[in-house]
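Project standup — Tuesday

K.O.: blocked on the structure for the chain from last sprint. Re-posting the sequence here as requested.
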Amino acid sequence: MRAPIGDFEHAAPAPDRLDDLVGPVADALRGWRGSVPAERIVYVETDPRWADTAVFVEHYGRDLLDTSANCVVVAGRRGQETRLAACLVPSTARVDVNGVVRRRLDARKASFAAADVATGETGMEYGGITPIGLPAGWPLLVDPAVVDLPYVLVGSGWRRGKLLVPGKALAELPGAEVVDGLGV
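H.V.: unblocked you, prediction finished:
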């Protein structure tokens, strides 16, 4: 199979590569219910040495800079309560944590979650967190620019692989909410 974007040597429908995915991501694909068939989600093998965006696009295709998104975990706090959420924005943008996200989480203070919290709560590897397979009940805030793309490159749960997901499918994930102004 040829990947719909990028220049990857190995690509396959993600449901055919469940053994290469972390448990929560594989489980999410097994129970997939979106209008976009799970078979349209593509798993591509990548080298973890090239996981950082600038190096990644040099190796796998410059077109990926405009078609990739970062999924980050944010912690919003109000009093003793902490709420975790995931945010998905184009890789060329940054998450408006202290504005849009803080207000959306009804928090007094919001910040990126510590790496050990993000990995411990998601069951995914830092640098590979993906919006597919997030913990039940988490809000997933999605920038509209991501939804509009035919395919979006996101993490796979590991740093050694990526998923190519139709943008529309990302807006249909559990807890997903398309939020204007999320990425700035």
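K.O.: great, moving the ticket to review. Helices lie at 23-30, 53-60, 97-104, 115-122, 144-147, 167-171. Residues 23-30 form the longest helix (8 residues).
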